[in-house]
Design brief:
The chain is 77% helix and 0% strand. The protein has one domain. With 110 residues, it is mostly helical. The termini are close together. Helix 1 runs antiparallel to helix 4 and helix 2 runs antiparallel to helix 4. The longest helix is centred in the C-terminal third of the chain and has 43 residues. The protein has four helices and no strands. This is DUF4212 domain-containing protein. Keywords: Membrane, Transmembrane, Transmembrane helix. It comes from Flavobacterium lacisediminis.
Length: 110
Amino acid sequence: MSDLKERRLKSLDYQIQELENRPSYLKNYWLRLVVVGVLVTLIAPEYSARNSKSLIYYFDYNYPLCYSVVAFSYVVICAIMLLTFTIQDKKKLKKLKEKRDLNDLFRDQY
């Protein structure tokens, strides 16, 4: 087997190992997610751009409801992102394993 194919196989093995050993996004960045969530929840309802009304205006100045809706929206967006990242990692891992298996299959033929 040529040196180039051997290096390619080692590279694929390294990428697979890296993906399998990577801790989840939530474990790595939980503190950042909480801090950003608190800031978004506190700032978003009262923020308004030029010549526009703030979000709190559309909730008829019902502060608890507005803050709850913003916080719930942030949690839902984070959950969707976490699910999406997990699915993408699994697809990438599956694709890399298929490439490695294909390279292993043709390893001894050349």
